[in-house]
Amino acid sequence: xxxxxxxxxxxxxxxxxxxxxxxxxxxxxxxxxxxxxxxxxxxxxxxxxxxxxxxxxxxxxxxxxxxxxxxxxxxxxxxxxxxxxxxxxxxxxxxxxxxxxxxxxxxxxxxxxxxxxxxxxxxxxxxxxxxxxxxxxxxxxxxxxxxxxxxxxxxxxxxxxxxxxxxxxxxxxxxxxxxxxxxxxxxxxxxxxxxxxxxxxxxxxxxxxxxxxxxxxxxxxxxxxxxxxxxxxxxxxxxxxxxxxxxxxxxxxxxxxxxxxxxxxxxxxxxxxxxxxxxxxxxxxxxxxxxxxxxxxxxxxxxxxxxxxxxxxxxxxxxxxxxxxxxxxxxxxxxxxxxxxxxxxxxxxxxxxxxxxxxxxxxxxxxxxxxxxxxxxxxxxx
Length: 382
Prior knowledge:
Blueprint: E1 4-11, E2 15-16, H1 26-40, E3 48-52, H2 61-68, E4 77-80, H3 86-99, E5 105-113, E6 120-121, E7 138-139, H4 153-164, H5 169-189, H6 214-218, E8 239-249, H7 250-256, E9 262-271, H8 280-291, E10 301-304, H9 309-318, H10 332-335, H11 342-357, E11 361-368, E12 372-380
Parallel strand pairs: 3-4, 3-5, 10-11
Antiparallel strand pairs: 1-8, 1-9, 2-8, 5-8, 6-7, 9-12, 11-12
Helix pairs in contact: 1-2, 3-11, 5-9
């Protein structure tokens, strides 16, 4: 198999729904990142583009994005929908394409605009038409599992995990505080500055709260009512953003004189219980590490998508000795979670984490709606 290298990864700022990017289409966000990557890394001909997207307008939005970015018409492009895990799945597919000899240089990642998410309507003859919240067939959240079409299905998945594992509100809030503190410290030091592509003059992640405190968290109401534990502080925001990585074969690296920063050691996909989807992150990470004969102690950087703080708690309970290497610069509770782009954000942040650690191996993992999980294992090049 051909070795697969990462030349670099970049992203837009991550901003809240109906915020600074409220009129910017997701394909435009993605196109700006593709253009920035090509300007920074002069790689020559591309083999293809793979983009993740979860709540866009459909119609192979990645092809539209590639054309907007000025990528040649003969370069193929296709879209992956694995919901939250879409960008990670796109990167995994690009890895597989290169490893199997199907091209030398691929762009892969994802894009999302929750601000411009279309309202969908079931056909009148669809049995789900009258089962929507208002009985009018309109919905925002797709059906991820049989018998469940609730708009708040993801929240309930996290709540079920919290209840099953006896995870208290306070334990979740502890990780919210950690996430914001680490992200604020990273922002103050400009850790992400060189990988962020400004959009129309905006270059800041607008979700980080430098003054996040237990007092503020205590004031937040429960999202799912009495007897539950999730609040807006322990569940990620809804966001807009895009993130992509540039991957190349060993052959391209040698022949084109490229300078990669890391190589991909392997990837993994996993399915699990749709009713407890947050478990997918650690479950798929465990599978990938076992496949390579490694443990979490062998990693210098670990990035999990913290769509919910329960994901952090599950990891911290199982591997308390690794907490300092886990989401080193904060996670989605602070930055946000633009669904189809988050796997690309994780990779960009993982490379930064490993750089801060002086190199070594790192792993990213993300849970997806429907009980899915995707993980990627990388190693920095000395």
